[in-house]
Recover the amino acids of this structure.
């Protein structure tokens, strides 16, 4: 391996370890008027020190330790953004699919608020989810973040919508590191829930201010701890449930859009694609029944399938959006922009196979593929990404999104798998296990 290749490989490794997301049921106060959401979460994935490049940390420190107790007189959400009547909005609904990531961001008193430049602002009343949507996603960033950062988040989200369709309503909330700014964002979020009669203000504030339970303050602390410790880490999650009426995304500070670390912007863009694909998945498993409990598990499928699907589709879509120019590259960190196909393709898959081998030999030895779950760290992501590459090579790239997911809600996962891939999942595990024993050159040959 040349030193250049080694460097590229190590870079990929470093940034790939940044984020993972898992499904941990995290139910806010059960007395809450928001009933039992199942929240898709992202436990911290600390960067392993033994196989990464040294990452320089800027000298910036987290800045504030102000109280996070909410102030009085929260401003109702509808005073912070234009209020458009639903009649007026429906008249102006676009009839052609979104084709641009252009967006507008406003620096409001309490946060930054971004919308697509071409899609209309969504109405206050929840829109049925699980259906394609004609309104803009809404992006809210803490006031200690820059407008440019919030715009970068919005562009990536819009690029994902261009690729896969607009499965709204989407609220994407991005925390910074400053405690007071985080408290302001919590207040803005809870005002919105309270104003829309979705959740009691006090309960909302209490949960989101808690350092755990995967609330807003949890995500703020992920970023603050990363900056303070010099160890880059990003977590993002999709939450919400059908009865909430919207997809809730929460993210720690997207460090690839900042200068805290030497992390390229494409890694953050890929994370946003990954998270948004979870909304696409959930839109297809939520239309017929409750999201909670066994029904969801039976429908959604195993961890490797869900996370690997999001990761595989995110890699492909980010690669496509950047190569085609639909999405601009951000913070390339000296990397040749023309090499993005390789970075998100062959190099990423090489790294994932290497990471998988290491984790299966150390963390989860002798665990069969079907049982590789959250406890095996990101091994489920790695093996799932390769498994989806394998299935896409055998059955076509469009099968997952255009055939598998539309059939899923009615058939449930195992029967959809049998129907689409013409084998049981057990048969697949046997076949795929043999593939994993092949030399890497033969494995890479399945990639487009
Ligand atoms: Zn995920």
């Amino acid at each position: 391996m040349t030193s250049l290749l080694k460097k590229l490989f190590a870079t990929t490794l470093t940034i790939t370890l940044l984020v993972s997301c898992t499904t941990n049921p995290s139910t806010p106060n059960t007395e809450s008027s928001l009933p039992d959401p199942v929240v898709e979460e992202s436990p911290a994935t600390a960067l392993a020190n033994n196989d990464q490049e040294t990452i320089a940390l800027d000298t910036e420190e987290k800045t504030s330790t102000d109280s996070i107790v909410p102030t009085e007189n929260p401003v109702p959400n509808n005073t912070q953004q234009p209020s458009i009547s639903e009649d007026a909005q429906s008249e102006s609904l676009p009839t052609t699919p979104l084709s641009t990531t252009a967006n507008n961001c406003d620096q409001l008193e309490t946060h930054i608020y971004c919308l697509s430049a071409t899609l209309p602002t969504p109405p206050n009343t929840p829109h049925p989810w699980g259906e394609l949507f004609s309104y803009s996603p809404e992006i809210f960033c803490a006031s200690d973040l820059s407008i440019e950062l919030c715009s970068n988040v919005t562009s990536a989200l819009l690029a994902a919508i261009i690729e896969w369709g607009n499965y709204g309503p989407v609220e994407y909330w991005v925390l910074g590191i400053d405690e007071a700014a985080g408290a302001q964002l919590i207040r803005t979020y809870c005002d919105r829930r309270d104003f829309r009669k979705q959740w009691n203000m006090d309960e909302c504030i209490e949960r989101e201010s808690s350092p755990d339970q995967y609330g807003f303050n949890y995500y703020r602390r992920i970023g603050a701890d990363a900056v303070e410790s010099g160890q880059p880490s990003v977590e993002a999650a999709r939450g919400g449930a059908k009865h909430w009426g919207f997809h809730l995304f929460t993210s720690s500070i997207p460090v690839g859009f900042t200068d805290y670390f030497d992390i390229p912007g494409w890694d953050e863009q890929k994370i946003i694609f990954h998270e948004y694909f979870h909304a696409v998945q959930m839109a297809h498993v939520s239309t017929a029944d409750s999201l909670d409990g066994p029904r969801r598990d039976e429908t959604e499928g195993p961890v490797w399938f869900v996370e690997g699907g999001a990761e595989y589709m995110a890699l492909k879509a980010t690669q496509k959006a950047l190569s085609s120019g639909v999405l601009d590259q951000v913070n390339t960190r000296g990397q040749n922009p023309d090499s993005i196909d390789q970075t998100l393709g062959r190099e990423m898959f090489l790294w994932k196979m290497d990471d998988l081998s290491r984790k299966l030999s150390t963390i989860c030895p002798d665990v069969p593929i079907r049982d590789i779950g959250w406890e095996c760290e990101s091994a489920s992501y790695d093996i799932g990404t390769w498994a989806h590459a394998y299935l896409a090579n055998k059955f076509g790239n469009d099968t997952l999104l255009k055939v598998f997911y539309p059939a899923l809600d009615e058939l449930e996962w195992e029967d959809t798998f049998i129907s689409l891939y013409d084998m049981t999942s057990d048969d697949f595990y046997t076949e795929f296990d043999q593939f994993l024993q092949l030399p890497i050159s033969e494995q890479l040959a399945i990639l487009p």
Residues 21, 274, 278, 307, 310 surround zinc ion (CB under 6 Å). Confidence is low (pLDDT under 50) at residues 1-20, 22-90. Strands lie at 22-23, 40-41, 103-107, 111-116, 138-142, 170-174, 236-239, 247-251.
